[in-house]
Amino acid sequence: MSHLATGQDNAEAETRGLYLHVPFCAKTCDFCGFYQTTPTAPLIRKFLDGVEKELGILSGRGPVSTVFWGGGTPGLLPPEAIRRLGSLISGFCASAPAEWSVELAPGSVHPERLAALREIGVTRVSLGVQSFSPGLLEAIGRPHTVRQVETVYARIREAGFSSVNLDLMFALPGQTEEARAEDVRRAVSLHPDHLSTYCLTLEEDTALWLRLAKGAGGFSREAEAIHYESTWRQLAECGYEQYEVSNFARPGHRCRHNFNTWRMGSWYGVGPSAASQHDGWRGSNVADLDAWTEGLSRGFRADRDRVATTPELLAQDALVFGLRLNDGVDTGPWRTVSPGVAWKRVDELVGWLEEEGLATRRGDRVWLTERGRLLADAIGVEIMEAFTAEAAPV
Question: Rounded CA gap, 179 and 133, in Å?
């Protein structure tokens, strides 16, 4: 599938990534729907042994340029486990990744773990702050304090990582526009290299979803749009370039790993529940540590939602995710590698978006206006329907 990715005009698309899901959390945040379990020494050993087996199954698949550890809470791993994982992944990648990101929660940041992460070659840390308001942190069940954020941020900077990202969330229960603006101001005052600002998404059956379903308050689409626009303006004024609906960076600090996925490149997903896209298919590992390791013992992985990544499917998703980027997407290469798509319907949709002031087109390149980016999710649904309509018999 890499020949499709290299058809894009963005250098980040030429990377091949590896995503590692570390499924351990000390406490489940009220909004979180990701697979996780409580860490114990035996479970951590079982996880490490499973990673070694899965990387062995994947061996010989070609060089990896970017690595991303998510979770869960990767920072809960003890230093010796971090070093073992680092050795396994470095051996798999063959050469040092150009970018190696790790998500950390404020409560898991300790000097010994930071030293181990630097030792294995991590270049980028993403710190899950979510908010600088004690009341809002409590409302979403986030188990850290504002003081912790400020303390551990200083530790991360002192450790010497090349790039530091802060994650913020907005449209939180009870959050006012003033509180949102203060969160952004506090984040910017720390001078991070990158900021990710996500609108709260309620995952069904999470503690927060259940609480709000009982009438504990929610956010309207109109209020969400105000928070989006205000955040974009505020960060632009502070010198952060928006390059994707939810991501902002100083020059040279865009997340290359994410670019690869948005541009429909290849990546290997390792660990329970990790998603993959490579060698003509996509799918995800089973979301259960025991079942994942049992499958690996039989040489088996990625048994959920496995589908063939046809050129038509990749072209569809390249538009859906590419239009979330401020640079948009060049449809030219996809028209070449996806001749099975009757592009007339897609072009008609793009024409309608232009008429409505939601998109701009120059040649084969299409990008959304600011108003269009506010409706990126809905536009993505329209794109998928356009592709489906083209695939249906007349």
Answer: 8
